[in-house]
Specification:
By secondary structure, the protein is α+β, with helices and mostly antiparallel strands. It has two domains: about 1-25 and about 85-118, no CATH class; about 25-85. Helix content is about 45%, strand content about 15%. The two termini are about 35 Å apart. It binds zinc ion. Zinc ion binds near residues 12, 90 and 97.
Length: about 120
């Protein structure tokens, strides 16, 4: 069998050419962090002096960090070092943003007018 193949190069459909895939769970994780921080700050109230201010801030940040840990622990990530990255290199294009595939010449010619803006 003989056939002609051409390389069809196009923007990666998975990452849309962005090269990275954003983990949307991180938006929920950051929400949990922000809510815990705000709730703890509200609970502690207005600080009377500078020392109380910093103590309250530290407590709020600790609570936020615990909420973040709890969020990932609920999803099976018990160790902070194993938390999923916020942005991972695209698995489809391996971070190039471009996908190349072999296409039959006949198919390429058939698709040409709709695929290329001349
Ligand atoms: Zn990609």
């Amino acid at each position: 069998m003989n056939r002609y193949l051409v390389i069809y190069e196009h923007t990666c459909p998975v990452c849309n050419g962005e090269r990275y895939i954003h983990n949307t769970e991180w938006e929920q994780a950051n929400d949990a962090y922000d809510k815990a921080q705000a709730a703890t700050s509200a609970e502690l109230g207005e600080p009377a002096d500078e020392e109380t201010y910093y103590n309250n801030m530290r407590q709020a940040l600790d609570a936020a960090q615990q909420a973040l840990g709890a969020f990932w622990a609920e999803r099976g990530y018990f160790n902070e070092r194993n938390w999923p990255p916020e942005d991972a290199i695209c698995y489809e294009c391996e971070g190039s943003g471009i996908v190349r595939e072999e296409v039959d010449l006949e198919v390429a010619l058939y698709n040409l007018p709709s695929k290329i803006n001349l």
